[in-house]
Amino acid sequence: xxxxxxxxxxxxxxxxxxxxxxxxxxxxxxxxxxxxxxxxxxxxxxxxxxxxxxxxxxxxxxxxxxxxxxxxxxxxxxxxxxxxxxxxxxxxxxxxxxxxxxxxxxxxxxxxxxxxxxxxxxxxxxxxxxxxxxxxxxxxxxxxxxxxxxxxxxxxxxxxxxxxxxxxxxxxxxxxxxxxxxxxxxxxxxxxxxxxxxxxxxxxxxxxxxxxxxxxxxxxxxxxxxxxxxxxxxxxxxxxxxxxxxxxxxxxxxxxxxxxxxxxxxxxxxxxxxxxxxxxxxxxxxxxxxxxxxxxx
Length: 297
Known about the structure:
Layout: E1 9-16, H1 24-34, E2 38-45, H2 46-49, H3 56-66, E3 70-73, E4 87-88, H4 90-95, E5 100-104, E6 107-111, H5 114-126, E7 133-137, H6 141-152, E8 157-161, H7 165-178, E9 183-186, H8 190-196, E10 199-202, E11 226-229, H9 238-246, E12 249-251, H10 254-268, H11 276-296
Helix pairs in contact: 1-10, 1-11, 5-6, 5-10, 10-11
Protein name: Shikimate dehydrogenase (NADP(+))
Catalytic activity: shikimate + NADP(+) = 3-dehydroshikimate + NADPH + H(+)
Family: Belongs to the shikimate dehydrogenase family.
């Protein structure tokens, strides 16, 4: 069913750093085509434009003037964008980060669909397994949504690490107040935390092609750990590959990006639901073609 008002065309975009390999354009354009909607999706790469988060006001204004229906927001702008919005959804306000901005009737409305995407992905891949005691790396824009989701999924404890320790401490304090049933703290010693942990989440950009490497020493991962990655390009980060080789229960970032995009698609279209399974199948096919092309090259 289409919403009451027709949406024959959609102009969408993504603002972030190093997003040249983002799957968002094909993800939204393909699903829109399945719904009979012409969608044009534009990457707004801060690296290519030689701009920073401080340029968000002019980018948002330009998007409004050009008729964009909405924007996805990624690293490093998920928190920086908030002061330039007119309204926040309850979830975005509680989490303190925005990854989806709907531009409608002269207003900028911020949402957070990362929370939903991560939760759905974890439910699908962890199954009946409880999160237990979790170590999370990264307390930035995506990290705040992931941490909230982990506690809502029933994590007994959550230990946060970040390159900026004060950011991890601030997030831990906020979450502990909201989730008194769990133990939430900023970590001090990563090795000690991993010895006590049941699972690990990487919510940092380390592992992306622009930020190669691993966000922690791989020897700290043990086969008993589950490991969840939120990066999806590349689909298999170095740490995810190592975790699989060690026999860890692993969750890649594909499901998170698909589910968060499906929810954002619904927001952009004013209520038209997206088919997450179809979107996942499409993205898997695109990734397979990319891998074949890279191997052939």
